[in-house]
């Protein structure tokens, strides 16, 4: 009889394990970084939409929006990319005076300090959606012939697209395990590897 007790079927609760895993992936470990990842870019977009109504002077609006997007560029490049997704990129000048771009992806392991799945979604959605909004603003200011606003939108797209490009390069490094050739990395590499973009959403 004792042997029958040892071989009894044990009911495993896999649903509880899945719920625990889902709870852990939804936790935001870096709330301040997640907040500032979206704060500067959203405030810049809202300021762009409201500046024409609030002030008739273009210069303060231009300075405000470029300042917000500069803060956004710095915080995304130097802080939130490292904390939320474990990616970083920078430019350095070697001894010969050549510009060298470096793209890194932190190896994912247990106990590392990178963000959760929820933070990664916040990071990538903010990084992709905001430049699309600025491109929409580009066409609206182009077709409405607001040339001075067009210069602001082009500067905004440049700042947003630089971070997007850098982090897509970092993501490619992380997926491949080796840095891509800096001279040949174009949109074609992204077309060959659509999982780099769609795997992050």
Explain the overall architecture.
The chain has 201 residues and is mostly helical. Helices cover 68% and strands 7% of the residues. It is built from 8 helices and 2 strands. The protein has helices spanning 2-6, 14-26, 31-54, 58-85, 117-143, 147-176, 187-192, 195-198; strands at 87-93, 99-105. A two-stranded antiparallel sheet has the order 1-2. Helix 3 (31-54) runs parallel beside helix 5 (117-143). The N and C termini lie far apart (55 Å). The model is unreliable at 180-198 (pLDDT under 50).
Note the topology:
Elements: H1 2-6, H2 14-26, H3 31-54, H4 58-85, E1 87-93, E2 99-105, H5 117-143, H6 147-176, H7 187-192, H8 195-198
Antiparallel strand pairs: 1-2
Helix pairs in contact: 3-4, 3-5, 4-6, 5-6
**Largest sheet, order of strands side by side?**
1-2
The main pleated sheet reads as: 2 strands, antiparallel
Over all CA atoms, what is the radius of gyration?
22 Å
By secondary-structure content and strand pairing, the structural class works out as mainly alpha
Strand content of the residues, in percent?
5-15%
The averaged pLDDT comes out at 79
Brief synopsis:
By secondary structure, this protein is mainly alpha-helical. The chain has 8 helices and 2 strands, in the order H-H-H-H-E-E-H-H-H-H.
Notable traits:
201 residues, mainly alpha, 68% helix, 7% strand, globular
